[in-house]
């Protein structure tokens, strides 16, 4: 697939692609589910992995509940856990609420989910549910660090004390070394069934539905369930470390190929879409901070100037690379996760680009791409695209295969016909499509 922007230089073509990405990025924020402002009680579901995108979702839910005038907020929990830092932020939000709030454990409140449940004054547990198992793990190797255990144990104890829940039970969920008579032997993590939670006064009652919670709380009327917006759904998906790494690899590869062979929209547009998804998801997950995206755009713009405008590659290009990866780094809420994902992405992308540069220029596919003007033009081809056809000039940069040459007194962006062309070598134009000029060694 090829984009023909007749008369536009490669720099302008890339700029148009970035404008398109900006439109996609800004429009994405409008795909949200409108808030409902009727009803008395509000249910905010906590499903799946606890991470920063969930924090954003819960923040919006609490704000909507406040605007709706909800008299009771129910946190419906079913999660195996997730990020401790995100759970602590959610815990703080719930503890600072001015409106009545209770937790309803519909299935599992493990790890980070247990902290969220403990952050409400009352916990109701559905029959068949459980709560506990909150030992912190290092995400890189799943090891347990005593410092992490000690800090999280203190956090659980502090939250339980503030919300008037049994502190020993809260500590036992985090620390294996704590022994609790009749319920938790030393060396095991505490995980309570709904019956045990009721027996040891962690839960208020065992229930079968949210309606039973409303009845026990003497809440009048029906309830509204807070819905996840399209943006939040995409954010939770693309902010996953594995998905983020894939998007970064594809984005870097796509833009590299576009800079290398300007005028072919597929790699450039694909790379921009990958980066747009990456920053869209992480911007929503990070509560709308635009700084990472701004740094990334400035960095890419500097790289484009270095490649298409300024001869050679120097300070401007290096600064652009630094700002680009700085923007990507700041998009992650966790510095350790950022270093890991970005490092892996750089290594994999370098390998892929190396293979691409080594084998693609000599492939039949490359020759079909760069010499397709006569095929795509057909009998109806326009003659205005043959300004330089047949003329000779000199390469003013290395062509590997893209670069710049001076032809007929003009400096233009060119692509070789598949071979490496050193700076200063005389070349001849064999194809001129207006926005893609192909040359060969004379």
From TrEMBL:
It is found in: Membrane. Keywords: Membrane, Transmembrane, Transmembrane helix. Residues 243-357 form the NfeD integral membrane domain. Residues 389-439 form the NfeD-like C-terminal domain. Its main location: membrane. Residues 42-218 form the NfeD1b N-terminal domain. SUPFAM superfamilies: ClpP/crotonase, NfeD domain-like. The keyword Transit peptide does not apply. Pfam families: NfeD, NfeD1b_N, NfeD_membrane. The keyword Plastid does not apply. It is a multi-pass membrane protein. GO terms for cellular component: plasma membrane. The chain crosses the membrane at residues 268-285, 291-310, 315-332, 338-360. CDD domains: Clp_protease_NfeD_like (cd07021). PANTHER family: INNER MEMBRANE PROTEIN YBBJ. This is Uncharacterized protein. It comes from Candidatus Wallbacteria bacterium GWC2_49_35.
